[in-house]
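Researcher: I'm preparing a figure for a lab meeting and need a structural model of a single chain. I don't have an experimental structure, so a prediction will have to do for now. The sequence is pasted below. Please return the structure as tokens so I can convert it later.
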Amino acid sequence: MSVLSRRIAAPLSAFALLGLASCSKPVPAGNPRSSEFYWTAARETWAAGNYVKTADHLDRLLEDHNEYSARAIPWSLVLTSGMAGGYIDLADHYAAGARARKANGLEFRRKATEYRTIASSLALRFAQTVDKLDQMPTGSVQLAFELPNGNAAPPVLLGKVANGIELPPADAEEVREAAIRRSILLTACLVAGAPNDLAKTEHLLSRATALTPRATFAAALSQMLTRQSSMYTRDKLDEPAKLASLKQRAQTVVNWAGQSGTAMVIDPRKGSQ
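Model: Understood. Here is the structure written out token by token.
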């Protein structure tokens, strides 16, 4: 086990399996898949906006070290953290809606708890992948995915939720999907070193393999972990062990960064080193 893993894995091990069990499924017996198969499948489902399936495909690539590991680890981190962030946004808005409705906020509080529980599962999945950073090669971090679909502006319907306005089921589903897409998009911008700058991030990610400085990537991960830890405060899920574990990771992951510099774009036809 790596130094990073030994230092921060123990506090999480008691509850990590709970969060991961529902996210990953074993390959059916007699149906082996190659690493190339899962990499291609991840690219296809990402382009289609099916992020749950993309995360599952990337999980397959993380089960052992292979030729795709250095690209699958950062991609999985962006995806799972982005999904978690979307559910955190939803939960916070439904909690605000419950306060706005006061005596009639039961359904809003239920939705807030439901979304925080989903976000927690994704955050634990994200944290477990953070422990794989020591498998990454030295130098800049490769971002081998295209700019995800989404809108950087907050969904208009989220404002209605926060004001305690109950949405029809179709609108509630629409805002859920929009919040998740937006969070994944903004997470991609963050790790690329261009927070909230879609044009710069798109330029970095399109038509080439992008490299982002190791220190930039680590700082983004630390920020994500810190935000996700906020779910476990006493006024939310009230799980101090998880709060402490994610905060510890947020501090430790910065030490993983081995170099700094500006993001660059390289031609994949000339190699990725």
